[in-house]
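Title: Prediction job returns without error message
Component: structure pipeline
Severity: low
Priority: P3
Assignee: unassigned

Description:
Job completed but the reporter wants confirmation the result is attached to the right record. Sequence as submitted:
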Amino acid sequence: MSTHSHKRSLHFEQLDVFAERPLEGNALAVFTDARGLSSQEMQSIARETNLSETTFILPRAPEIEREQGVHVRIFTTVEELPFAGHPTLGTAAWLYSNRPHLLSPGPHTIRLDLRAGRIPVTFHPPDPGMPGIFGTMRQKDPVFGQVHEPAALATALNLSPSDLDPSAPAQTVSTGMPFCIVPLRSLEVAQRLQIPPHTAQPYLSRSDAKFFFCIAPADPASGARWHARMQFYNGEDPATGSASGCAIAWLVRHGLVPSAEPVILEQGIEIHRPSRIHLRATRNGDSVTDVFVGGRTIPVAKGHLFLP
């Protein structure tokens, strides 16, 4: 029988983020102590987990973590990201449950020290009737960028211009990661969306956006106000918290959602990973602030990965 005594053993936990029940939402692997790993090793591990994102916690002295936040790095299977929503929420949820020195009386706020800056995530005591814990991150104030021309955008998305909602312009928005927010005319358009990488990627490379985030009004019977899809890297993301923050900022700025009104966005329906993302943002004149993105995180697995 082989042993792992000569190898490094890295503890990780897997969490479902923006999920209402286990095996839904967006899965996240959290490596709880990544000290000693190189960037190349982190990237290789992220390819091994093959999830939308994998995070690596780099513990520091408790007094530094309380003052500056917990140092976390975020990787997709392809690259490191400065910020991403479901990894931020899910990693903070793990810290809330496992690092008591970070907690203060009352509502508990965990701060993550990411490449994009410090992001606070606030948790309330768990609801005994619901799985996991609910947390809300405050994202950075949005930066509004390029307005996208409908015909060229439709071509990149393999849609017709009539599939786009003409009531507000598609626009790049960033709260730490720039997304082109694309309003679709109907839920039916969203459901048949198939973005071809060979047209989407050249378009994005010429723009100020990293990815497309397509939204449409949700079926009222779903309990959600908006329905979203995010297709990238030849796949699809079950829940995109960073893009959802950009979307609520865009919706509030263009008057499609009242300032400070809570709304629910659903995502992942078409790939059988339903996600519910709780959103609100505040408009002050032409600016938007107080972008809050929340959801539930549910632990589903834990284990060890072995490296030489």
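Comment from assignee: result matches the submitted record. The chain has two domains: 8-138+297-307, 143-296.
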